[in-house]
Predict the 3D structure of the following.
Amino acid sequence: MATTNVSETIAWTQAAVDRIGLDKIYSIQPGNEADLYQDNYAGEGGTYLGPPSYQGTQTNESYVGNYTKYVNAILDSVDGLPQEKFFTAFDVSAHQGDPVATTWTFDLETTFGLGIDERGAIKEVSHHYYQNFAGGADDLEAGLMTLSVTHANLDRHARRIGWLRANRPDLPFVLNEVGNSLQPTNSYAYQNRLGSALWQVDFYLYAMHLGVARIHYQQIMHAGYNLWLPVASAGLPAQVFANYYSQPFVADFLGDSASANTTVSKLDVGGGDAAPNLAAYAAFEAGAPKRLAIANLAYWNGTASSGTTRPAASVAITVPAGTSEVTVLRLSSPDGAGATADSITYGGSQWTYESQGKEVKGVRDDSEQIAVKDGVATVSVPASEAVLVHL
C-alpha cells in the first residue's frame, strides 16, 4: 500500500497466490506500518518516496480510504480469494516511549465507524511491538528484566483489545511483529541472553493474560534477538541462541491449547526481596488450573563476577484438592541473566545446532517432584530463572 500504483499491489498478490499457494497463505496485509508514511519521506540516499508515487502522511480517514481501496481492488482482481476474513488490518508500528501514539494511532472506534470493514474482509487487527532500542550488557536489567516496564508497555494495547472484545469479538488482536529491541546493529549481550529469554517468557504470558490472541516473534538474520542462526554468517557459526529457550517453555505452559481451550491469567504474588520482578501465571483448561509459570526476573548475573550469592524467592502454591505432588521444570543457567545458550537448559534439556534442533535430554538434572503439605507446594525460584509447575 506504500505505492499509489494499485496494479503493483494486485500483481504482488497474484504472484504470491500462484507461487506459494492459497492454502498456505494465512492472510494478506495491505500496508506495513502505514502510520510511518510521510508526505516528505526520504529513503536510502535521500531518495524522495512521497506523493504522488507513494502514499503521504495517513490520518484515520485517509488510512481507511486507502485500505478499503486496496482490499477491494485485490478481491475484485485476484481469483479464488476468500471474500470474507482474509486480510490483516492496521499493522501499526511500535512507538517506543510514546504511550499516546501506541494507544491512539489509527483508532479502532474511529476507523470502524468510518467503514474500514464494511466488506467483512478483515481477519485480524495487528500491531507491532519492540521493547526499546537495545543497549549493552549493562542495560539488560533495566531494559528487559524490569516487569513494570514491560507490563506498562503492553497495557497500552488494552484499549484496543477491550474495544474489539466489546464491539468485534470475532476479530482477534495480534502482535504480528515482535522483537525485544530495535537497533541498526545487533547487541547479543543485551538482546540474546538468558535474561532476554526470560523477558520473552513474561512478555508472551502477560500478553496472553491481556487478551492478545497471537504473537509472531521476528526471526531474521543478525537482528540480535533472533532465536537461531541457521547457517554460518558474518563471522558467527550456525547456532541456537538463548532466546530460543523461551519457546518450549511457553509451549509446554500452554499445552494443547487448541483442544483444551487454554486460557491464561496473571496471579498475584507477594513477599520476598524478589517480589517486584516476580510474576506468576496460571494456565486453565476447561476452567481448571493445570500449570503455573513463575518467572523471577530479579537480576543476577554470574558472568559479571560480582561474587554475590544468588537470591531465591520461595513461592507457596495452594494446589487443587487431591494433589499430592507437583512437577517442576526449570528454565535456568548457573550463569544467571548473562548466560549464553550453551549453559542454558529447560527441563534439563538443550536444543542445539549439533543436534539439528532435536531435544537433547539429561544435560542438567534440575527437575523435581515437590510434595504437597497441607494443600501447599513450596517452590524455590532463584533470581534470573523461570519454573513451570505441573499441578
